[in-house]
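Record type: monomer structure entry
Structure origin: computed from sequence
Chain ID: A
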Amino acid sequence: MPRVFSFQVSPTLPDRLEALNKLALNLRWSWDHSTRDVLESLSPDLWEETNHNPRLVLGRISQRRLVELASDEAFLAELDRAASNMTEYMSGKGWFAPAHPDAAGVVFAYFSAEFGLAECIPNYAGGLGILAGDHLKSASDGGVPLVGVGLLYQHGYFQQYLNADGWQQETYPENDFSTLPLTPESDAQKNPVTISVEFPGRLAYARVWKVQVGRVPLYLLDTNIPQNSEEDRHITGSLYGGDGELRLQQEIILGIGGLRALAALGIHPAVCHMNEGHSAFLGLERTRALMEELGVSFFEARQLAAAGNLFTSHTPVQAGFDRFDPKLMATYFAPFAERLGITLERLLGYGRQNPVDPGESFNMAYLAARFSSAANAVSRLHAVVTRKMARSMWPGYSLEEIPVDSVTNGVHIRSWVSVEMTGLLNRYLGHRWAEETSESGVWERIDRIPDHELWRVRQIRRERLVNYARLTLESQLRRRGSSDAEVDAARSVLNPDALTIGFARRFATYKRATLILRDVPRLKRILMNPERPVQILIAGKAHPHDSAGKDLIRQIIHFARDPEIRSRVVFLENYDIRVARHLVQGVDVWLNTPRRPNEASGTSGMKLLPNGGLNLSVLDGWWAEGYDREVGWAIGRGEDYESEEYQDTVEAEALYNLLEMDVAPLFFEHDHENLPRRWIAKIKNSMKCLCPIFNTNRMVTEYVERFYIPAAKRYSNLSAQRGAKLGPILEWRKWFRTAGSQVKITRVQTENGRDIRVGQKIRVTASVFLGGIPPEFVRVQVVSGSLNSAGKIVNGSSSDMNRTGMAEKEYLYEGQLECVESGSYGFRVRVIPYHPDVRVPFEHPWVVWAE
């Protein structure tokens, strides 16, 4: 076969326009409107054709246009201003450095299988990726020393289109990396930075690319390089594609290869944050590297590696975690276990609920948790659900004590707020509002905005959304080969003055996209009300193998073709960042109908908040925290149902009632100035109450303060003096393995009886046989709380008892309980491990209760 000699052609930029390259290659333009305006003004038509890709615009723009711009004083002034702003931004420190002067040189690494940064980089599938992208952007704004690590997919996630029957079809357009706003990493000798990982009988290689996200670099690994076999070149071929073995290969490249890529770049993170379990193999690789670096055992290195790792779960059901067949794992990891100095069965046990069950599949979530020192869910309700799923890992602890914390998700407000709303917020909140999005005092200034100005912005964005939907629908119909009459009708769908509802998400069955179709005649009456017209825009993709999800889309398409309502219901194909931005900036209400509690968090509804949209949702995910009657509407009250059919009937009825009796009447209630004052008041309440909370600036700050900094300190402490503290920790663990079964609480006594008065204190004493375990290695605690009808303690709290002496080989302990309220209360006594350098119970789930 003839050899192909490849070369790259780049535009010849006049010296005066050289700054364009810098602006195009830093994704800060994706959230900075002024920079985006400069890049778009190069060629508005090309900007749209290239899906808002500034690097591709520069590659296609004519040389004549560039010469013309080089002498355009107005353009040059805007370019200079954007370049100056970029320089100022990049040299700034953000809030992190002043807040943590002792953390100089510390690096945090954020691993994710997908990153949603901009529509021109299709390296994401949905909410997980968008959240990861917003995480990097807020870290950049705050000056957090973070690096991102992911995979670079040749095809990315699929492109969606619908056939004549409304059935989803998929295409996988190939990405040309040379035209995307990213660059290959090279070493000092200008050679590509490449890493390798061990596969059965061979090495698989990956090249490292960089996307600059403001101040934060994102490193992406690509296996489509000549060093690989044809098969291995396709490992990073597509996101979430292929069979189980390909998925395993991808996750090896992400976790093991990602950590090696950072090492090749001279980056040694103190903390590795696993965004979902896809990157969990980094725990094994970090352990291996520490064994070689410090000359310590596997168990010591694992203790140190875990101290600097954090695991975030986004999954509310067990089926959502990646699992691999033990035989497949053995094929890929038998040599790795040997390098770690452990048996394959022990390695596989770290990924099992029951570590000694050889038939159990290997679960990436268990591996991630066992190689971390902390884990969190992404909303408070999700934390409750996750604790129930993870309960078996911490036997003997009550549900509320299962050490799974929560950090509720947010959105990067500047990436999602419209240009018009940005101008309004700049005018009335001050130009620093975007840097202080977590400050409630900033958002209190919303009341300064005149009602008519806020409403005008809402009208403008709704009008723009309607125009966008018409053009998009017309294009969709032409691609499907629809009749001229249908295409002509598309130009007049929707009403710029109607109450506009948005529904867009992944079409998984639990999200119940067709709940609103449960009573079609009633829905038609709502949509076609001549005095209160309502319209719905819908978007979303089903997984390529999810036939049930695809059928939901088909049902919606068939409903939208009904001649009576076809001008009131529009489905926008190929839901992505671009479609989402139009929707969240233009709709009046965001509808969300998941089957509680299956929505881990959700972030789409958050994107409406700074744009003045309102939420109408089931009390699930973030809305279970954010809802108040003054800021939006709730479908139901968070009830649990035994029958899904009955639940759907009840909640559909509640949805119709809300639309008919609350939402639509409020929207169309206008005063003598033709303003919906009460609706506007609800918008202002929503923005004031919710914007300071549900944003990624607050979220990233929480991760830094509650997880990153403590983990970095633990890691630094344990790695000091070549891991001198690790051996004593293993000895400490050994005490519980060898003598833990002998520990027993032999006696518990109180002196006050059962009838206690408010204000009294209960003295509790206990005798404990420790079986040779030194008393400084344990804490004896009294756990107290109110009793439910079954006589069990609920919402208990623990307090340490004091060691007072010893009698006949038993240690004596004493504690007090203060009775501050009347009611039925109870207490229990337990022994738990204690070590200043171990997080109990997360890292050591051992406990003995008084019988």
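Annotation 1: The two ends are 77 Å apart (CA to CA).
Annotation 2: The longest helix spans residues 451-480.
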